[in-house]
Design brief:
Elements lengths: L1 H11 L7 H15 L6 E4 L5 E5 L2 E4 L7 E4 L1 H19 L4 H33 L2 E4 L5 H29 L1
Helix pairs in contact: 2-3, 2-5, 3-4, 4-5
Amino acid sequence: MIPNIFIFVLIKYPDMIQRIQTLFLLIADLLIAILFFVPFAEMYGKGSKLFLFYLSGIISEGTDKGEVIQKSWPLLFLACLILVLVNLVIIQYKSRQRQINLSLLTIVLLLGLFSSIYFSVWECNSLLGGNYSMKISFTIPLIAAIFVYLAIRRIKKDEKLVKSIDRIR
């Protein structure tokens, strides 16, 4: 499904791909999509039982299917909202000021997702009563926020260029 969204964007809006900020936003979009498939932390409960913390919740390892211990609907909803918002920013390429505002909102939500993931891991670990270790995928929201920030800088540069051309006329 995720590649289909990228193909749709490439076919429907071919002129916006020429802008570097669109590439930054597509990279951020891809990073956010990766969040749905990778664990953020490993937690060891009592009796050395291994649990993995995904965006969807805590999954117990060691069983055949991996039973879900606790679901984290707010994190899942927030990640879906961010994914939709980044796609909306990409589509709004003709309105640069709206792109900037939506991108700033996206950065705030990404930082909120990052802190919510950390708080959720810490809280769930205290319920399990064991140790936890964060994985490198924990930093993906911060990396996506950096790419959105780079896109904002390029959008502002485009806006400045358009205003300078309007002044010349």
